[in-house]
Amino acid sequence: MSSFTPHLSGGRAGRDGFSRVLRAEWDRFRSTRGWVLAMAASVLITVSLGLLVTGGARSTCVTGKGEGPCPAPLVGPDGTAVRDKYYFVHQPLTGNGSITARVSDMTGQMRLPDAVPGMRNIKEGVVPWAKAGLLVRQSLKQGTPYAAVMLTGGHGVRMQYNYIHDVPGGPHNGPQWLRLTRTGDTVIGHESDDGTTWTEVATVKLAGLPETVEIGLFATSPGAMWDMARAFAQATATFDQIELRGADGPWRRDDVGVTMESDGRTPHHPGGVVESGGKLVVTGGGDIGPATVEGGLRADLALIGGAFGMIPMLVVAVTFRTAGRRLGPAGTSPPAERRPARLLAAEATVLGAVAFVAGLVTSGVVVPAGLAMSRANLNPVQPITLGTELRVIVGYAALTAAVAVLALGLAALVERGIAAVGLAVALVVVPYLLATAGLVPWLLMTTPAAGFAITQSVPTFAHVDVDGSPLGGNYPLPPWAGLAVTCGYAVITLGAALAVHRRGVPRQGSPAHSRGTRSARPAADRSAGS
């Protein structure tokens, strides 16, 4: 009876060999209780911190009925939380028409940090996004569609519409003529330095604009930013050479969105208008734009403990590599160790999959639960679409997997467990914490910590000044770009480790390999004869 060895192609043999190594690494991971418990601790830390923050958050507002829960956020045409507070001098316009005016002067007031404790420090000046100009809108109801061409405190002429859209015009260089023209659903904004030569800023369409709209002059100003909060600010603009076409009635005056003090009668920081000699001096405070801060609590606050939760996972990733050196019979390397690149690839696959599942469980629990707790505590919550919520949840899982593979690659390169853990923490956790403290936000562009941007649940808008730290929900890179930076680090690090290990292993049949085989035999013989 003859025996034979079936022939396998190199490709199939390689695939089968990798599958065996992959199964072996998975068995090694799940049979090591310490690693399983550490991954569970990673999940528990992030979920516990997230629920502690969201469950403990309480928002109160002072309204005309006294202090109590804050109202639900105002929502714009596209579902984004918005601010819609300004002073408006206007007339109804039926059909087509236009308004032209010159902004001859723009001043204001703002509150700065108190120089003397207890004494309000009010200074003259305007914030960069203070606004004064021409406005046409569907109605005075807050959150309705609008278009406006305006002069700003520090960003020149702009045309903005429906809260989230911003088109730059020319720079501000003295008195500025503005014109806003309505034709059906189309609104066109123009600017001029002399009132003779006009330049179009933008043309926008406001779908469903009714036959009669409100058109006029407005002024508003977001608060001055300091200490991660907004303080009082107002803008005052002088309008002259005003010309209306299509409307010729008396001016109406409305302080849109003004809130009342606790007595229910006194307006809080009211606006106003003074009319004299063909001039209108309009003063207002608030903003017309996205409410990135004032719109309520964000979904990503539930993942605020993610950096701390990743520390046990980084330890697992490093020790999974450094504790994987096993000797075969008679002190020789096991079959997988003779192909360390294959072993490293299997380790990365297993660890990345485990980390992804752990991250998915973490975000899949804490994000919906955190939002539910915030609403149960009567806090206003930023509107979030299903697509954004899924991106936050799945994106966090992808970030966790990328960070785990990065730590594994560092361990394969450094080959010292403590040093690899320290390096991984320094590259991922420390930059995030420093940026959260507002110290070096640029680290979230240049380090693997950039991937935390994938958890951003409220968009960043260029025409809104916000606190630039993750604590304020803002990152220097867009969500997917930030995750791409982290994934890039992981791919480069793992690729370098694979290249190093491929070069460091003698090929079968080489002199080095033969010497290694011969030197192993006496040891094997001694072992057999002992």
Give an overview of the whole structure.
Helices cover 37% and strands 25% of the residues. With 530 residues, the chain is α+β, with helices and mostly antiparallel strands. The strands form 4 sheets. Strands 3, 6, 7, 8, 9, 13, 17 and 20 form an 8-stranded antiparallel sheet that branches. Helix 2 runs antiparallel to helix 3 and helix 5 (386-414) packs parallel to helix 8. The longest helix is centred in the last third of the chain and has 37 residues, at 340-376. It is elongated, with a radius of gyration of 32 Å. Residues 1-8, 326-333 and 506-530 have low confidence and may be disordered.
Helical stretch tally: 9
> What characterizes the major β-sheet?
8 strands, antiparallel
Q: Catalogue the unreliable spans.
A: 1-8, 326-333, 506-530
Strand content: 25-35%
Produce the secondary structure layout:
Blueprint: H1 10-30, H2 33-56, E1 60-63, E2 66-69, E3 82-94, E4 97-112, E5 121-124, E6 131-137, E7 146-152, E8 157-161, E9 165-168, E10 176-183, E11 186-192, E12 199-205, E13 212-220, E14 224-226, E15 229-231, E16 233-245, E17 252-256, E18 272-276, E19 279-284, E20 287-290, H3 306-322, H4 340-376, H5 386-414, H6 417-436, H7 443-446, H8 479-503, H9 511-529
Antiparallel strand pairs: 1-2, 3-13, 3-17, 3-20, 4-5, 4-10, 4-16, 6-7, 6-13, 7-8, 8-9, 10-11, 11-12, 14-15, 16-19, 18-19
Helix pairs in contact: 1-4, 2-3, 2-4, 3-4, 3-5, 3-6, 4-5, 4-8, 5-6, 5-8
